[in-house]
Amino acid sequence: MSLQINYNAGVYEIQGNLNTENCVYLKSQLETVIKQSNGVVVSFDSLVSIDAYAAMVITSLQESTQSNNQIFYVIGKKNKKVEDQFNALNYHHVLM
């Protein structure tokens, strides 16, 4: 399943497989949105899978937005695969 980004009620819902190959695209899209707004909420609840590199990229993006006093929330604790990947990398603090 390819990566899909849907905007619904203020939340960017990411669906499909988030991996090394396509996370650069997602990061680019989110950086554009962040520059144009005060904050971004991303949901990974519908992801089929996420790899370690993609989790590191998302964490890096979240940390850089925080240092710039911007809002970047990542919803994903309801998705066991996402939560397990972030926990394995000790990035559990990133997910809501």
Structural account:
The protein has helices spanning 23-36, 52-67, 80-88; strands spanning 4-8, 11-18, 39-43, 47-50, 71-75. It is α/β, with parallel strands linked by helices. Strands 1, 2, 3, 4 and 5 form a five-stranded mixed beta sheet that branches. Strand 2 (11-18), helix 1 and strand 3 (39-43) form a beta-alpha-beta unit. Helix 1 packs parallel to helix 2. It is globular, with a radius of gyration of 12 Å. The relative contact order is 0.18. The model has no long low-confidence stretch (mean pLDDT 95).
Per DSSP E runs of 2 or more residues, the count of β-strands stands at: 5
Give, in order, the helices and strands: EEHEEHEH
- Binned strand content: 25-35%
> Major sheet, described briefly?
5 strands, mixed
* Cα end-to-end separation: 24 Å
Q: Radius of gyration, Cα only, in angstroms?
A: 12 Å
User: Quick check: average pLDDT?
Assistant: 95
Tally of contiguous helical segments = 3
Shape estimate: globular
Low-confidence runs: none
Helix fraction bin: 40-55%
Content-based structural category: alpha/beta
